[in-house]
Automatic annotation (TrEMBL):
Keywords of the record: Cytoplasm, GTP-binding, Hydrolase, Magnesium, Metal-binding, Nucleotide-binding, Potassium, tRNA processing
Purpose of the protein: Exhibits a very high intrinsic GTPase hydrolysis rate. Involved in the addition of a carboxymethylaminomethyl (cmnm) group at the wobble position (U34) of certain tRNAs, forming tRNA-cmnm(5)s(2)U34.
UniProt-recorded name of the protein: tRNA modification GTPase MnmE
Gene source species: Hymenobacter jeongseonensis
TrmE-type G domain boundaries: 219-390
Record field: transmembrane: none
Database matches in Pfam families: MMR_HSR1, MnmE_helical, TrmE_N
Top EC class for this record: hydrolase
Domain of life of the source: Bacteria
Amino acid sequence: MFSDTIVALSTPPGAGALAVIRLSGAAAIALTASVFSKKSLPTAAGHTLHYGTLRDPNSGEILDEVVVALYRNPRSFTREDVVEISCHGSDYVVRQVLALFLRQGARLAEAGEFTKRAFLNGAMDLAQAEAVADLIASDSALSHRVALNQLRGGFSQELRELRGRLIKFAALLELELDFGEEDVEFADRTGLAHLLAEVRRVVAALLRSFELGNVIKNGITAVIAGRPNAGKSTLLNALLREERAIVSAIPGTTRDFIEDEISLDGLRFRFVDTAGLRDNPADEVEAIGVSRTRQRVRQAALLLYLFDLSEMTPAEVQREIQELTEGLDLPVMAVGNKTDLSTTEALAAFETTFRAEHSLTASSAPLVFVAANQQIGLDALQTALLAQVRGSALENTASATIVTNVRHARALETAAAHLAAVQAGLDTGLGTELLAADLRHALAALGEITGEISSEDLLTSIFTQFCIGK
Ligand code: GDP
Ligand code: ZN
């Protein structure tokens, strides 16, 4: 428990119907009572609402009519006494109320301090505390779902389970060390090898999920490349227009748009339009344009190669995709535009020829036909985009744990390296001491994620598992 009581505005600044000011700390209720009209507040039960007025005790001035929500330690977000005051959402009122509480002895909370207190007071572990931040920042259905899952402990539970099993082995190894010179093996090496293999598999899967988590959290950068007049700008506008129509149909949405971002089925796509690619980059200026496009492509997670069906042959499309993605491991979609100028037969023939060229990797890329300026084929394009990004990975991990946090990913990488060292040590018959050290490092890295590791952790486990007095 902290001795001081913190206060902050918990809703966004600016005018609104309501603003919520939150206090947490030992004096939260007493402080509120000193300026609140209801004299029963100090003895009121937790989880109750109280309507009344806030009054400056010095000037006697009434500041606002408010509703006070009371939470008593430990049944609150921070596990301290917490008061949430709903007042009218004007900047003036909020400033006055905050100033009043500061005069009464509260301290302005630092960024994230309520959540920090929740962690330090044991209300949640580190990964969960971080999920609170992710949840607040999440702006798509999918990132919201991932953060919520993490907040409820999904990620932490999986890690705790892993660590628990490893700690048992670490404890046995420590025990061997305690026996010093004697040639005893408490820790069954075969059993340890099996567990290691399993844990390494899970850690690797969690690390792989980070790639996906990153995509969910930050969106997917898709580069639209193609020759001038292929219809890149038209397609981008068509994609954006559809999204805008959907969003503006929701009453009350006043969200600012980043020009080229759309959300498909909970995944954010950031489309980057590129300078046109020339068929033949003869002069220098055009060569620069192409190299710039290539640079963009290198940073993308997906290449959408757009071409004019009436202008390019399947072989030409293949060749340009090949050139753009040379040396890159990047999903590609070939999108043929201006179907309105083609016949159904011509489209079918194009596809057949496109697929027939097996020597080129691009021949297996999804091929979609659209008429961008008439909004034809956009649904199929979006479906193909989603399928391309998700692949089978997302289907399999839909309900499983997804790592979204960089700190967690780093810790998992460290753990993976030490686990690999333990594995190598087992394979080469490394001494117990070194095995134990590597295992300890791996456990520390895993424990860093939930914030529960300390060297005492290990000692406690040894103690509780084996009642050998020392
Ligand atoms: P960019 O240079 O690749 O960005 O191409 P633009 O988007 O500027 O389009 C070039 C021209 O193609 C414009 O005149 C568009 O109106 C036209 N265009 C785009 N999509 C289609 C389409 O599906 N069918 C037809 N017939 N014309 C299109
Ligand atoms: Zn353009």
